[in-house]
Write a structure and sequence with these properties.
7 helices; 0% strand; elongated
């Protein structure tokens, strides 16, 4: 059985398909699936409002800045979330960090609202999950060709 040090050495040296596929791989797969599904579904729901009226989560400061275009902005947010989720499907090694940054922005927006602290806390947990996916993806998702030449 490979030790943690062995796994770290193989991920630092290069992407290695021989990395053990135990609990670590299962955790990676779980996070990978979650961070594809959640952003895509949330992004699609920005157009249907089936789950919730997403416009109410836009901070008043941002809504007043956007004026009558606040709803269109939320539609753009939906498109970005869909693209980010599909990006995680294709290259979690890179797009997990996009999701983490996106969640940081959502948390900031929710804190500006002054009323959705519970949702901001939940999204902080999601941000930590996205960071964990980004780290695990270095073990299980091959780097782009540009990364391989630099190593």
């Amino acid at each position: 059985m490979a030790s943690i040090v062995d796994i770290r050495k193989s991920s630092v040296a290069r992407f290695d398909k021989a990395v053990p596929r135990g609990a670590t791989y299962e955790a990676y797969q779980t996070l990978h699936a979650a961070f594809v599904a959640a952003p895509v579904l949330a992004g699609l729901d920005k157009f249907s409002h089936f789950l919730v009226d997403w416009d109410k989560y836009l901070a008043p400061q941002v809504a007043s800045l956007l004026g009558e275009h606040a709803h269109q902005f939320m539609l753009l947010v939906g498109v970005i979330e869909i693209v980010a989720g599909l990006g995680v499907a294709a290259k979690p090694r890179y797009f997990a960090w996009v999701i983490a940054l996106w969640l940081a922005g959502i948390i900031f927006n929710l804190l500006l609202c002054g009323t959705y602290f519970d949702i901001a806390l939940r999204d902080f947990g999601l941000l930590l999950g996205a960071v964990a996916l980004g780290r695990l993806a270095t073990l299980f998702d091959s780097p782009l060709a540009l990364d391989r030449r630099a190593a």
